[in-house]
Specification:
single chain; mainly alpha
């Protein structure tokens, strides 16, 4: 006679029934996906709405498109310098991310692997520097930008973005470098390897997930940065996407919502593609950063 097994009282046994799975897994997941994806859905439908649909809620529903139009995208691409804004954003984000990663790798390796006196306090100070609000930093940075004659240039953004990228990337890489066994480095030193060889041939290949994680983080912050780009750049051909769509598509109190949402939607695509390709490395890097 077959004996019916009782549900496991510990672990994940409570998920064996459909009702429990629905309440504890699927319902919270559905709420999370709705909150996460609804802004993108709203941007998408607003992009393809005409002026009548945007404002006449008595005849048209605000939650879907009745008469799709490409007028908003046409206005964005042909009546503004959006292509230049996109290129500026990409150039500034890539170069500033590269510079920040180079500086962060050297700083994190020195703090975490060289074991000098006070290294922990230096590491904590680097992380605390990230907590300083950009609204405080941009005033002295603006003075330096004006003094060096870099105002209204891409170089002004490339050189100022690392001020908030390097601290967090350094802290993130410190956590990941800490997870690499010291024995590997000691064996390399015994074999006569230099510190530079250890860094380039041992540490960096093992820290690829951490590097990708820090790179994605830095690229995303650079791509979405607004305060510095608004302060240090004024010409339309040098603006980035976050500043361009706000300053060029708002005329006084008139908001061109269709084109604004089109700019935001197109501007979010590169970051979404980046995350889709490297999400596994990003999670692995963030996990390694919190290891002790």
């Amino acid at each position: 006679m077959a004996v019916r097994k009782k549900p496991d009282e510990g672990g994940m046994g409570y998920l064996e029934t459909t009702t429990n799975r629905l309440v504890t897994v699927y319902a919270p997941l559905a709420v999370f996906l709705f909150v996460l994806l609804f802004p993108f859905y709203w941007m998408t439908i607003t992009t393809f709405k005409g002026q009548d649909e945007l404002y006449d809620y008595e005849r048209f529903s605000p939650f879907w498109v009745s008469n799709p139009t490409l007028a908003n995208i046409k206005k964005l691409l042909f009546d503004t310098a959006y292509a230049e804004w996109l290129w500026n954003t990409m150039l500034v984000a890539v170069v500033s991310t590269f510079l920040s990663l180079v500086c962060s790798v050297l700083a994190a390796y020195a703090i975490e692997r060289l074991r000098f006196s006070g290294s922990r306090y230096v590491g904590m100070g680097v992380f605390l520097a990230y907590l300083i609000p950009p609204s405080i930093l941009f005033i002295p940075l603006a003075t330096m930008v004006y003094t060096l004659g870099l105002f209204d240039t891409r170089l002004a953004l490339i050189l100022t973005y690392p001020t908030f990228l390097i601290p967090f990337c350094t802290w993130l890489l410190m956590g990941y470098f800490r997870s690499i066994p010291y024995e590997l480095e000691e064996c390399a030193l015994i074999d006569g390897a230099t510190r530079w060889q250890i860094l380039t041939k041992i540490i960096l290949p093992l820290a690829v997930p951490g590097l990708i994680s820090a790179g994605i983080f830095a690229f995303t912050l650079s791509w979405n940065e607004f305060i510095y780009a608004l302060t240090f750049v004024s010409s339309s051909e040098v603006k980035t996407v976050p500043v361009g769509v706000i300053t060029e598509l708002v005329d006084g109190d008139v908001y061109h919502w269709g084109s604004l949402m089109a700019g935001a939607l197109l501007g979010s695509i590169p970051v979404a593609i980046l995350y889709s390709f490297f999400v596994e490395y990003y999670v692995a890097g963030m996990t390694g950063a919190v290891k002790e």
